[in-house]
Amino acid sequence: MAPHTEQLTRPAARLRGLTRSFDGRTVLDGIDLDLPAGQFTALLGHSGSGKSTLLRAVAGLDHKVAGSGRLDAPERVSVVFQDSRLLPWRRVLDNVLLGLDGKDAERKGRQALAEVGLEGRERAWPSELSGGEAQRAALARSLVREPELLLADEPFGALDALTRIRMHGLLRELWKRHRPAVLLVTHDVDEAIVLADRVLVLEKGRIGLDLTIDRPHPRSYRDPLLGEYRERLLAALGVTEDQ
Amino acid sequence: MTATTTTAPVVTEPRERVRRPRRRSLSPGRRLPAARLVGPALLLAVWAAASAAGRLDPGAIPAPWTVLRTAGHLWTAGTLPTDIATSVERAAYGFAIGLVAGVVLALASGLSRVGEALIDGTVNLNRAIPTLGLIPLFILWLGIGEAFKIAIIAIVVYVPIYLNTHAALSGIDSRFVELAEVQGLSRLRFVRQIVIPGALPGFFVGLRLGVTGSWLGLVVLEQINATSGLGYMMFQAQNYGQSDVILVGLLVYGVFGLVSDSAVRLIERRVLSWRRTLSS
Ligand SMILES: Nc1ncnc2c1ncn2[C@@H]1O[C@H](COP(=O)(O)OP(=O)(O)OP(=O)(O)O)[C@@H](O)[C@H]1O
Ligand SMILES: [Mg+2]
Question: Residue A103, CB half-sphere, CA atoms under 13 Å: how many?
Fold first, then answer.
């Protein structure tokens, strides 16, 4: 997929009046949202605000959930979960190739593993990988399919702070190379600010704040200008700095 | 750690002295070589010693060498090989039929709702009736020949294989189902690449129970309704008070059980090599 300029205006996903409820309790209350192709978006919100519900709806994983609305999503969607979700009975490379066809598949799989720094671990069992390595293998598995939209639900939530920072750099780099639209669910305001070009706050079942972060990459946690964004996001989440 | 030689270099001493609180390992540790043979060998030694010391009544428990000599006689006379062949054939046919039936039924009931509705309740009903209680009915249906024995063994084998495989198939981790959907797997691939490999550990539990069950069924059947085979040989020996022949029969049964269980373990270790368990 060669990047065209018009592609940036064509949305990778379009949500109109998307509603989801569990046992009569409305969790998503008419969401209108465009995710432009190639844009890196982060989704913030309180625990239980419905971030995962929204992501699972876009991924088409919510078969049994009541709801209405319109949803256009591209054909090639990849999902990265909080756990790496590698099949323990398949070696790392075979995990990356899960569901992939074609005679070129293996070469692509090896290349994807090399991109996430797992060259040479193709024949390892998932149980032999560290948490960070497993999550990198999961990233490779999602990228090898060349997704137009990459959905990630707290993909770094289970990692230690140091590994997480490394993974931020890796994800951003992979995004720059492959340019999928990204929807990254996170509860970490700083993670959202450092990584994303647009940050959404989910509140009471709607997009409460839609913030474009116009700062060059790579970003530092200590960039004072990012502090302003942080304050606005924290305020939208109902937290003030001195609390 | 009791290095008291005078030539010990002083420099290394502080390093040796560092006492790190080591976490106690909860895994049972490295396997002893041939660990599974230690217990039986000890038992055999006690038996031989007691016999040699004349502490055992040779009419009730003959000495190990008596048993071996009897086994040799029976073997050269040709009766033991025939009896063994008859018994092994029964067990093998029954086991093979039970294995295929258990796996096929478990797949049909674990992979389709219709199959589950038809099969699962029926098998559980079958399970509720002790299989050996079916012997009179099966004799009426199939006669006293080989067919009924094989049928009973097959039932004893298929039940645990079915139950464990079915439980494993239907207990598939929902996270992996989700993954398969995300990766766009077809139903066939989902079954072949996720459901079946995930159910293999459960299948092997059932398989080992099935193997044990086939020998158990064999022993019971041969001792009550047979005119040939190892059990019949032991039954006859009981009538003539030949405890050494009975022990030969038990010995052969024991070897069968040990060999078949080891074979299953070996296959299991090969197939499930991705597992990191305490026993690895
Ligand atoms: N399968 C379900 N059945 C019933 N209620 C559910 C189900 N899944 C989610 N919910 C409810 O929907 C609400 C939103 O859940 P969701 O998992 O989307 O929150 P979240 O924003 O992802 O939270 P977190 O940050 O803790 O992951 C919660 O109140 C939750 O209890
Ligand atoms: Mg969530």
Answer: 0
Interface residues from chain A to B (CB-CB < 8 Å) = 59-61, 77-79, 81, 83, 85, 87-90, 98-99, 125, 127, 141, 145
- Domains in chain B: boundaries: 62-271
| Segment B85-135, tens digit of pLDDT | 999 999 999 999 999 999 999 999 998 889 999 999 999 999 999 988 899
* Substitution candidate for ligand 1 out of A52, A185, A201 with most atoms within 8 A of CB: A52
Query: Which of B176, B187, B190, B274 would best serve as a mutation to test chain A binding (most A beta carbons within 10 A)?
Result: B274
- Given an 8 Å threshold on Cβ–Cβ distance, is B189 in contact with A99? yes
Q: What is the pTM of this model?
A: 0.81
Nearest-angstrom CA–CA distance, A140 and A170: 11
Q: What is the ipTM of this complex?
A: 0.88
Q: Is the CB of residue B163 less than 8 Å from the CB of residue B188? A: no
Q: Is the domain covering B62-271 a CATH 1.10.3720.10 domain?
A: yes
**Angle at the Cα of B5 from the Cα atoms of B24 and B13, rounded to 5 degrees:** 55
Q: How far is the CA of A197 from the centre of ligand 2 (A)?
A: 21
Q: Is the CB of residue B166 less than 8 Å from the CB of residue B199? A: no
Report the 10 Å Cβ neighbour count for B276.
11
